Amino acid sequence: MAATGSQNNNMLMTILAVAVIAIIAVAAIFMMQDNRSSGERVADAVTALPQGVDNAANELGDQSPAENIERNAEKAAEKVN
């Protein structure tokens, strides 16, 4: 059975709604505050010290959750290797 115009419009609206929600979710992640405690920041800096003093110093500052996700993914990759 062929899809009618109404069904096509409903499918298009659903796809657009999902896309808008996904864009809003990604934007919210990038704009969230860094909620790490001072101890977590120092621990991250100590962990990053072998990669260089600059990297360790960057760990002490505020990071967006997107950067935290990237950092956690790198840590997971190091554990796998």
What does this protein look like?
With 81 residues, this protein is an all-alpha fold. Helices cover 77% and strands 0% of the residues. It is built from 4 helices and no strands. It has helices spanning 5-31, 38-48, 53-60, 65-80. Helix 2 (38-48) packs antiparallel against helix 3 (53-60). The N and C termini lie far apart (52 Å).
Which consecutive residue ranges, at least 5 long each, have pLDDT under 50? none
Range of strand content: under 5%
Order of helices and strands: HHHH
Give the termini distance in whole angstroms: 52 Å
Structural class: mainly alpha
- Work out the helicity level: over 70%
- Global outline: elongated
On the 0-100 scale, what is the average pLDDT? 81
What's the main sheet like? none
Number of strands: 0
Mind sketching the topology for me?
Blueprint: H1 5-31, H2 38-48, H3 53-60, H4 65-80
Helix pairs in contact: 2-3
Keywords:
81 residues, mainly alpha, 4 helices, 0% strand, elongated
Give the gist of this structure.
The protein is an all-alpha fold and 81 residues long.
